[in-house]
Amino acid sequence: MKQFGKVAVLFGGSSAEREVSLMSGRAVLAALQEAGVDAHAFDPAERDLYALKEEGYDRVFIALHGRGGEDGTVQGALELMGIPYTGSGVMASALAMDKWRTKMVWLAAGLPTPRYAILDAGSDWGAVVRDLGLPIFVKPAHEGSSMGATKVTEAGGLRAAWELAARYDSLVIAEEFITGEELTAPFLEDRPLPLVRIVAPDGNYDYQNKYFTDDTRYDCPCGLPAAQEAMLQALAMQSARVLGCRGWGRADLILTDDGRPYLLEMNTAPGMTAHSLVPMSARVAGLGFGELCLKILEGARLG
């Protein structure tokens, strides 16, 4: 483990996803220390990032989620300090964190993603409903973990959904609601990992059902025919490449009943908690949690 040198596990932070990041980071830190890595906890909400340079850290495992950790800002700081870090670089991190611009890149590349509208205080709510239909999924453009997100089932609820999302972000996106199988497609470097099928209570895969209940069912293997799973994995890898992602990540998608896939979001620093999907998929691929953490850390780089 000497090849890794002194390692900082960045977790916590000041985003709305701090609580989840704390769970991810503690799990990663324990796994690395158990493997013999000289790993240390580092919370950017409590310490100046430049301490990483002053204290001689050789590389960083980013277990931060949301803004200030997954959006290119920390990645840029680490680039300036010359400290290799896990996951995607500055551009891909910033792009993938912005759901609106992610969609524009995917659409420009000919990749399928649900139709959408940008909402603000002056939006014509009726026109949005007529264009996208109901239900509509409303969410902040720069948050993850379903923070501030609402499934709108009645036209009268659209403004309230925007108001909730706007508490988290000035940029709010309304998305056509696609019905079908909810799937996630993790990857590790250039290797797609097995798909995970998500079956949430009443189809509501919200913050609570993601992290704090055992009511959501996860199927891995996902149960799809091998050829269809391979097609979806290839789509996920293409979606990551056009955004410039590297290292590891997870694309979320919907598969309709008639077999059409729709890309939803790209996660460049996915959760690493007991309920998280990348570790679940990696286990099916033969990688235990500790080995997965080491593989991700091994891929730390600059530029």
From TrEMBL:
Compartment(s) where it occurs, according to its Swiss-Prot or TrEMBL record: Cytoplasm
Annotated signal peptide: none
Enzyme class: ligase
Reaction it catalyzes: 2 D-alanine + ATP = D-alanyl-D-alanine + ADP + phosphate + H(+)
Protein name: D-alanine--D-alanine ligase
The gene coding this protein: ddl
Keywords in alphabetical order: ATP-binding, Cell shape, Cell wall biogenesis/degradation, Cytoplasm, Ligase, Nucleotide-binding, Peptidoglycan synthesis
Pfam family, one: Dala_Dala_lig_C
ATP-grasp domain span: 103-298
Protein function: Cell wall formation.
Family: Belongs to the D-alanine--D-alanine ligase family.
The enzyme's E.C. designation: 6.3.2.4
Pathways involved: Cell wall biogenesis; peptidoglycan biosynthesis
Single annotated GO MF: D-alanine-D-alanine ligase activity
